[in-house]
Specification:
The structure is a single chain. The protein is an alpha/beta fold. It has 2 domains: about 150 residues, Aspartate Aminotransferase, domain 1 (Alpha-Beta Complex); about 260 residues, Type I PLP-dependent aspartate aminotransferase-like (Major domain) (Aspartate Aminotransferase, domain 2), CATH 3.40.640. The protein has 13 helices and 16 strands. A hairpin with a 4-residue loop joins strand 2 and strand 3. The longest helix has 20 residues.
């Protein structure tokens, strides 16, 4: 019989963690600040020492409905009574079939085939493999390289690493072992600006010169996420789509971070009015409750792959189509669509813009920018996490800076008071830390 376990003290939990756990992009030699969490609900994270933090990260941008949401909890519980998992090879089930149909209906026109996987990085791996197998199936195996943008980030698995910025993408260590891809300059035209011929020249010339060996272009539409929280022109994306079509190159849109309303559109591609050939989704797909991702493509791509040897797409994750995750995703999407999410994102955007504006006057701040439910303070120098992270926690917020960026992508359910607390803490801690230098 299951017996209730007593919860470890904060000190015991930290000791256990330090002895055995290895955190993302972390070192077991140089200990960074760790804050044991006891529980999370709504937009609040409760630490083991009793402190409560307003969450600005939405669990790495995924928990759009906040934590411990009763509808999502119920969806998991209801599905659990039927089955937690069953293999997707040779079997199917209602949550997966309904989710695939829902995603095909919601996403930009023509993306009718849905391949489910486990994480955003894997969804990018799947997209890359789709593009390569498609080109081979149509008798063009020489089209085997990808073109990506400087400043981009697409994940931590091998194929995904190859299309991250080789300088700023955190994967320089593996440069000699990765497939050698092509990289275009980061778009100079910012969001809301037109893309001139000069803005398009570099990427257009690369496609023109290399289209014979280029399987696809992969981009993060409108928002470059972990590569720098950079917002660029929708006109650039629209013109890039046209160039790809002109030169017979697929366009892969990585919307792992931007999908499901984060930028003010349901999908960031909608800002440019384009439909890519392949679309990657993840993070907010389940409202941050379960790990799940999806790669969508056109029927032409799917049929071309399947109508040629070996007659199938060569990928198959063990936990593909996990029923618990699919049921949760359906519930999360329903919660989003039943709300007035566009007005809510606009509310968040306006308050972030107003609340973070004072940071622009702080010496050492390079830029302050917002788009949808994303707010960014960019510094001139990288943050010292040993100083910044405890200071933000002491200010009552959970904000996780990286590099030169102090940013938030909060849950959509965040209140105005909580947003005000987030913005005030970001500005005050930025001022405090920069004045200490």
């Amino acid at each position: 019989m299951h017996q209730a376990k007593t919860k470890a003290s904060a000190e015991a939990l930290l000791a256990l963690d330090r002895a055995h756990a290895w955190h993302p992009y972390g070192s077991i030699s140089a200990q960074q600040p760790l804050f044991p969490v006891r529980s999370a609900s709504g937009c609040r994270i409760k630490l083991a020492d009793g402190r409560e933090l307003v969450d600005g990260m939405a669990s790495w941008w995924s928990a759009i409905h906040g934590y411990n949401h009763p509808a999502l909890n119920a969806a998991i519980g209801e599905q659990l009574t039927d089955m937690a998992h069953v293999m997707f090879g040779g079997l199917t089930h209602e949550p997966a079939a309904r989710l695939c149909a829902t995603l095909a209906a919601l996403t930009p026109t023509g993306l009718d085939r849905v391949f489910l996987s486990d994480s955003g990085s894997v969804s990018v791996e799947v997209a890359i493999k789709m593009a390569l197998q498609f080109q081979q199936a149509r008798g063009k195996p020489e089209k085997h390289r990808l073109l990506a943008l400087r400043g981009g980030y697409h994940g931590d698995t091998l194929g995904a690493m190859s299309v991250c910025d080789p300088v700023t993408g955190m994967h320089q260590l593996f440069a000699n072992t990765l497939p050698q891809q092509l990289f275009a300059e980061k778009p100079r035209c910012r969001f809301g600006q037109p893309a001139t011929d000069a803005d398009m020249a570099n990427i257009t010339n690369l496609i023109k010169q290399h289209h014979h060996e280029m399987a696809a272009v992969i981009i993060e539409p409108i928002v470059q996420g972990a590569g720098g929280m950079y917002f660029y022109s929708a006109d650039y994306l629209a013109k890039l789509h046209a160039v790809c079509q002109q030169y017979d190159v697929l366009l892969i849109a990585d919307e792992v971070a931007t999908g499901f309303g984060r930028t003010g559109k349901l999908f960031a591609c909608e800002h440019a009015g384009i439909s890519p050939d392949i679309l990657c989704l993840g993070k907010a797909l389940t409202g941050g409750m379960m790990t799940l991702a999806a790669t969508l493509c056109t029927d032409i791509i799917a049929r071309t792959i399947c109508d040629h040897a070996p007659g199938a797409f060569m990928h198959g994750p063990t936990f593909m189509g996990n029923p618990l995750a699919c049921a949760t995703a359906l519930c999360s999407i329903e919660l989003l669509l039943q709300s007035d999410w566009p007005a809510n994102i606009q509310r968040i955007a306006q308050q972030l813009q107003q609340g973070l504006a004072p940071a622009a006057d702080i010496v050492g701040v390079a830029d302050v920018r917002t788009l949808g439910a994303i707010g960014v303070i960019e510094l001139e120098q990288p943050v010292d996490m040993m100083q910044w992270q405890p200071a933000l926690v002491d200010a009552g917020v959970w904000v996780r800076p990286f590099g030169k960026l102090v940013y938030v992508m909060p849950p959509y359910i965040i209140s105005n008071d909580e947003l005000d607390r987030l913005c005030h803490a970001m500005v005050s801690v930025t001022r405090q830390q920069l004045e200490q230098r």
